[in-house]
Design goal:
The protein is α/β, with parallel strands linked by helices. The chain is 19% helix and 26% strand. It is built from 5 helices and 12 strands. The strands form 2 sheets. It has a 10-stranded mixed β-sheet, sandwiched between helices.
Length: 242
């Protein structure tokens, strides 16, 4: 099928939407890695090796293609990510954490002083390094909503934004209509239990389901990467008949 491609071909199409973006509105892409049965982690939260080296290389290329990378504090607590581009050539983006209560360790890797800008969305002002910018909610009911976060980042010059995790954070941004592109890296592994991937608002009919236009790319280690354009519906009908 012509929509299946291998990453031995130039993968520019995967990163081109972020690299070419010049519009007034921010461009937001989300990335999720999961098993064949839709799990992002084991019941104890282990997730680091689900997608293998090819998936990790792709994630680092995504980081190198955007102005800012955003994760929720749950990902920080579970994985302590560096959020760098150390596996590929290219600059590391601004690192952004959503941490309303200030749960992140003040020695977490994302806070490393390596020349990258660091931003935390938090109502807790205690203990952050002086060079880290804290954006508080000021008691607003919309504080830390996807709209609030994207607008705040855009006001600071970040016009291409990667929502990297976790799944609940990505789900909130999709439900809010703030994600333009979604990459799902599907690993040839069946976990059988554990934490599920996307959990969006319930729907009653399949006609209400998201049906993005998508291309699939086979990575070197057997992972399949789905590039989903959430702003463009899939070609063809919305349902099948017997």
């Amino acid at each position: 099928m012509d929509q299946f491609r291998t990453l031995s071909d130039p993968p520019y199409a995967l990163y081109e939407p972020m690299l070419r973006h010049r519009g007034p509105e921010p461009f937001v892409i989300a990335q999720l890695g999961q098993s064949l049965d839709g799990r992002i982690a084991t019941p104890t939260g282990k997730s680091r090796d689900i997608n293998g080296f090819s998936g990790l290389d792709h994630l680092h290329r995504l980081r190198a293609s955007v102005d800012a990378v955003v994760v929720g504090v749950g990902t920080v607590v579970a994985d302590d990510p560096q959020l760098s581009t150390r596996r590929v050539k290219g600059r590391s983006p601004t690192r952004v954490i959503i941490d309303r209560d200030g749960r992140s360790s003040r020695t977490a890797k994302w806070l490393g002083c390596d020349g990258c800008r660091r931003i935390v969305f938090s109502d807790n002002a205690e203990g952050w390094p002086a060079e880290v910018e804290r954006i508080g909610g000021d008691g607003s009911p919309d504080a830390f909503s996807p709209d609030f976060i994207v607008a705040a980042l855009a006001a600071r010059g970040h016009h291409t934004i990667l929502i990297e995790g976790g799944a609940s954070t990505i789900s909130r941004f999709i439900d809010a209509g703030r994600v333009d592109r979604l990459h799902i890296c599907l690993a040839p592994i069946i976990i059988g239990s554990g934490r599920p991937g996307l959990q969006l608002r319930p729907i009653d009919e399949l006609t209400d389901a998201l049906r993005p236009r998508a291309n699939a790319y086979v990575l070197a280690d057997g992972n399949v990467l789905y590039d989903c354009d959430l702003r463009s519906p899939a070609r063809g009908g919305t349902h099948a008949t017997d």
